[in-house]
Design a protein that fits this description.
The protein is α/β, with parallel strands linked by helices. About 40% of the residues lie in helices and about 10% in strands. It is globular, with a radius of gyration of 16 Å.
């Protein structure tokens, strides 16, 4: 997951390898990319889909150029997808994956509603996107078939523990910081990072 909040940077130092930042074109240059903070690259396809706005390939390419100029290397970069659209996502993989590979970066393929393991191309990471109902119902299928799985939009202690139980290597979720009425959320994610686990692992 990702955040520019100071506590996130503190945790990055205190618990190395436990937290990182997911950067998309809209996140862009709002905060610096720090050499000590692990990071991955998103493509903002979900944000455009959610907000009913056209996705910008120009903004995505500008992000790639900016990151390349920093001299830092993302753990991986998500190839542009089309949310909840199997065919368009597979077409986008063929259209854009080489732009990431040419930079020497690992690629993530964003699986969508209706996809099966056989649909995944030669990606380094499977990024489980799609609609929430489909994503969590089918998460085990992806962790059973691929060694590196990232799950998007994981915003509760139950969700994050279930992802860990199934074998996801990473998750993201902006809800931990964006809901000021939920004062329990930051303590919950801190307990998880520190190693505390509940015994109730159900996706909600």
């Amino acid at each position: 997951m990702g955040q520019s909040n100071r506590i996130w940077h503190y945790w990055a130092g205190k618990y190395p390898g436990s937290v990182g930042v997911l950067i998309g074109p809209s996140y862009g240059k709002k905060v610096p990319v720090d050499s000590w903070m692990p990071f991955v690259l998103d493509n903002d396809a979900f944000t455009a889909w959610r907000d009913k706005k056209p996705w910008s390939v120009e903004a995505w390419r500008e992000m790639l150029r900016w990151i390349r100029m920093t001299g830092l290397k993302p753990l991986w970069a998500a190839v542009p997808d089309v949310v909840a659209n199997r065919e368009a996502t597979m077409e986008n993989w063929l259209r854009y994956c080489d732009e990431i590979k040419s930079l020497g970066w690992l690629t993530a393929f964003c699986v969508q509603d209706g996809m099966r393991p056989g649909d995944v191309p030669d990606a380094d990471v499977v990024f489980v996107g799609g609609s929430d109902g489909w994503k969590f119902k089918n998460l085990k299928m992806w962790t059973d078939n691929f060694p590196r799985v990232h799950c998007a939009r994981v915003n509760s202690p139950q969700m994050i523990e279930r992802c860990e139980e199934l074998g996801c290597e990473s998750v993201d979720g902006t809800g931990w910081f964006r809901d000021p009425s939920r004062e329990d959320k930051l303590p919950a994610i801190q307990r998880f990072i520190e190693g505390y686990r509940t015994k109730q692992m159900q996706l909600v």
